[in-house]
Specification:
Order of helices and strands: HEHEEEHEHHEEEHEHHEEEEEEEEEE
Radius of gyration: 22 Å
Strand order of the largest sheet: 14-17-16-15-18-19
Helix content: 10-25%
Shape: globular
Structural class: alpha/beta
Oligomer: single chain
């Protein structure tokens, strides 16, 4: 970076969320290189659970993660603070996660955490500290479009690491104060190389793949421990309501699931729907798990305020899904019907559907998939 540009950034204060991982470590280093006044902030979100006399900690909230974040900040010569966000995390992430599963929906806690914690609660704390921006170690790009006068969310250079799916709900106000320097990197190998060159302790730290507060991936067990309630068995039924067998409780299942049903049917069967009111899990044969339409609610759009007419988009129905051509059609206040050119597998209520431009890298917006068709 030229001395001129570095001087422009000098004095601009950035609070960066430091999880103790390699991504946030490198993001902090890159921001400092650009001349920002950087402060590291580790969010205390979750204390973990006592299980069999031992503390099971979350992957991003453990003592070792905090120590790694502190050491990286020391190495970079920046301040490091730990702040308590446990009450907000409980309300907006854990309670939401439990309630959605109990209601037969499959939540996305990472989207909730980004929306309410990292880019709302942390942003408010950053403003109190006099910061101009907040930053994270996510792979995405935020750019200001002079023609429209709006901030845009673009895919990361690394398509394999792109995380824009998780940020569709960000507002213009939030986007105007967010920095994501890793969006310009080619791949994770480049990130680790930078960390090694800077001598950061997190350089070879493995990525976290599970939900941070359920490190063993036993969602049903976590929900039972949080609620203190036993699951209520019910019926597996087909699409016509015919009883096929018994399930052990709706929290054990999600739309699209084939394995782990606990009952053999002599042929592959897939979860098509979870009816919490009737305590039923609807199953279907191979092929029936595909759908051509969905209804989305709680919509948010980034290049414009609302959906006034049908638009063509590339849509993703889950984080790992390939974008598919579709038409998003407004059907009421903050609600849309999404019609796909080709049927999509396991469209799951509670998950997000995220829209991208058909000819570009911009996120158009998205919403939460309902149980309606």
């Amino acid at each position: 970076m030229s001395a001129f540009l570095k001087n422009i950034m000098s004095g601009k204060k950035v609070v960066i969320g430091m999880s103790g991982g390699v991504d946030s470590s490198v993001a902090a280093a890159l921001l400092k290189d650009k001349g920002y006044d950087v402060m590291g902030l580790t969010m205390r979100l979750w204390d973990g659970e006592m299980r069999d006399g031992c503390l099971s900690e979350g992957t991003c909230c453990s003592l070792s993660a905090v120590e790694d974040a502190r050491y990286v900040c020391y190495k970079l010569g920046i301040e490091h603070h730990v702040m308590d966000f446990r009450a907000d995390f409980q309300k907006y992430v854990i309670d939401y996660f439990v309630d959605e599963y109990k209601n037969g929906r499959t939540p996305n806690p990472c989207i909730a955490c980004n929306k309410f914690l990292k880019f709302d609660a942390m942003l408010k704390k950053a403003e109190l500290l006099g910061a101009d921006y907040v930053a994270t170690g996510h792979y995405a790009k935020v750019e200001f479009d002079k023609a429209s006068g709006r901030y845009l969310l673009r895919r990361a250079v690394s398509s394999a690491k792109d995380q824009t799916y998780a940020f569709y709900s960000l507002t213009q106000e939030q986007l105007s104060k967010i920095l994501m320097p890793l969006g310009e990197l080619r791949d994770k190998e480049e990130t680790r190389k930078i960390a090694e060159e800077r001598g950061l302790v997190t350089a070879k730290k493995p990525d976290s793949m599970e939900i941070c507060f359920v490190p063993d991936n036993d969602y049903a067990g976590f929900i039972k421990r949080r609620t203190g309630e036993e699951t209520i068995p019910g019926d597996f039924v087909d699409e016509n309501g015919n009883v096929l067998g018994r399930h052990k409780g709706i929290i054990y299942y999600t739309v699209g699931q084939r394995k782990g049903l606990g009952v053999t049917f002599g042929k592959p069967m897939f979860v098509l729907k979870i009816d919490a009111e009737k305590n039923q899990v609807v199953l279907g044969e191979k092929g029936t798990e595909f759908s051509s339409e969905l209804i989305a609610e709680k919509l948010n759009f980034i290049p414009f305020d609302c959906l006034d007419e049908p638009i063509r988009v590339l849509a993703k129905v889950r984080y790992s899904a390939k974008p598919a051509f579709a038409t998003a059609i407004p059907i009421g206040e903050n609600k849309a019907r999404v019609v796909f050119d080709e049927p999509q597998r396991a469209i799951t209520p509670g998950q997000a559907v995220v829209f991208y431009e058909t000819h570009g890298e911009c996120v158009v917006g998205g919403g939460i998939i309902t149980g309606e068709k």
